[in-house]
Amino acid sequence: MNKKQTIKTLFLLSICILCVLVFQLVVGGCFWWECVPNRDFHVLDWKLPAYLFPEDANLSDIHIPSEAGGEIEIGSQDIHWNKGNGIAGYDINRYATIKKAVQGYGFEVKQMVDDETKRSWIHPNEVAFVSITADEMIIMCGNWSRRRRCGMVARYQEYVIFFRATMDEEMGYAEFEKIVIYLDKQISSRLYP
C-alpha cells in the first residue's frame, strides 16, 4: 500500500468510526462507555399503592407525562384526597447517563422553593429518614400556593425520584416519611438485590 492509499483508508475508517459514534449518541442518548446498563424493569412498574395515602385518596395510574426533559424512561402519578385539597405528585425518571441523572436531580431540587419568596425549603426536624442506598437525597418542606408541602428528591444511579405532598391533617410528617421509606425500599431492592 502506498502512502496515498493508507491516508485514504485511515480517512474512511475515521468516517466510519464517527458515524458509529453519532449513531450511538442519537439512538442511545450516550456513548457506549457512559451508557447505563439495561434493566429488567421499567419505571412504569413502580406505581404507588393506595394504602400509603388517606382513605379517601384518588390515585391516577402511573403514566408517561406529556412533557419530558431528556429522560429515557419517565413515569408520573398524581394523588388527591380531601376533595382535592390534599395533593401529592410522584415522578420517577431514568436517564441515559449518570451525569444526566445528576443534572436531573439538581433541577428537581431547585423546584423546592417558596413560590412567593423564592427561598429554598428547609429540612424538617420531624423527618429523620436517611437512605443508605441513594447516591443523593434531600427532604425539604416549605410553602407552595399558600399550602405547607414537603418534598423528597433522590438519585439512585441513573434514576431520579421526586415525591411531594401537601401537609395536612391526613398527611403528616410520619405519613410522608412512610412513603419516602417505601420508595427507597422499592428502588433499592431492584438496584441492589
List the helices and strands and how they pair.
Blueprint: H1 3-28, E1 58-59, E2 73-81, E3 86-94, H2 98-109, E4 136-144, E5 147-156, E6 159-166, H3 173-191
Antiparallel strand pairs: 1-2, 2-3, 3-6, 4-5, 5-6
Please give a structural write-up:
By secondary structure, this protein is of the alpha+beta class. It folds into two domains: 1-35; 43-191, Protein Transport Mog1p, Chain A (3-Layer(aba) Sandwich). Helices cover 30% and strands 24% of the residues. The chain contains three helices and six strands, in the order H-E-E-E-H-E-E-E-H. It has helices at residues 3-28, 98-109, 173-191, and strands at residues 58-59, 73-81, 86-94, 136-144, 147-156, 159-166. Strands 1-2-3-6-5-4 form a six-stranded antiparallel β-sheet, with helices on both faces. The radius of gyration is 21 Å and the shape is elongated. The model is unreliable at 18-28 (pLDDT under 50).
Give a quick set of tags describing it.
single chain, 193 residues, alpha+beta, Protein Transport Mog1p, Chain A, 2 domains, 6-stranded antiparallel β-sheet, 3 helices, 30% helix, elongated
Give the gist of this structure.
This protein has 193 residues and is α+β, with helices and mostly antiparallel strands.
- Percent range of helical residues: 25-40%
Cα(first) to Cα(last) distance is: 55 Å
CATH class of the largest domain: Alpha Beta
The overall strand count is 6
Number of continuous helical runs? 3
Strand content: 15-25%
The CATH topology of the largest domain is given as Protein Transport Mog1p, Chain A
Q: Can you name the CATH architecture of the largest domain?
A: 3-Layer(aba) Sandwich
